Amino acid sequence: MTAAGLRQSAALGKLITVMPKKLIFVCVGNSCRSQMDEDFARHYAQKLNLNIEIASAGSRPAGYVHPDAIAVMREKGIDISQQYSKGVMPHELLNYDYVITMGCSDESICPASFRGDSRDWGIPDPIGRPIDFYRRVRDEIQQKVLELLQEVAHLPLLG
Asked: What is the percent of the chain with per-residue pLDDT over 70, rounded to a whole number?
């Protein structure tokens, strides 16, 4: 599903959301992948007028957003330079409908009582890799975010 397809679905009046769904993207440092997730999701949700609350966090926040993540998002027209890494405690995740982890092997992040949708996307960590690797990770994240928004907003599949 492309962004244009999502826009078309929303424009056709196929979107009805009463209570906002709450999504959080989690990795260990919240300095790269989950930051890109959050801002792609915010960008497309706003563009499509979706009623979705979006956040990102880390189980052990790094304290910064990686400059290469900022650079590759800027290439897509999204500025994450004012973002900062944030932490989250497992019990805080009970407030979310969807918890998406990046493949950080931080399996203990969701508490046993979590009843929402928890998924691990298995996206490789680009820190320490060349900028082209960051771009590939960014593009994979963008596609996964678009697919997730389509599912969460109950938009029909469009070619």
From this structure: 78
pLDDT score, position 42: 96
Q: CA 4, CA 63: separation in Å to the nearest integer? A: 35
The residue from 54, 73, 80, 110 that is catalytic is 110
Distance CA 68, CA 54 (A): 22
- Which is the catalytic residue, given 23, 104, 123, 146? 104
CATH of 19-150, one of 3.90.1010.10, 3.30.390.50, 1.10.340.30, 3.40.50.2300: 3.40.50.2300
pTM of the model: 0.82
Query: Could you tell me the residue ranges of all domains in the chain?
Result: 19-150
Catalytic status, residue 32: no
CB hemisphere CA count around 109 (13 angstroms): 27
> Which of the following is catalytic: 23, 24, 26, 27?
27
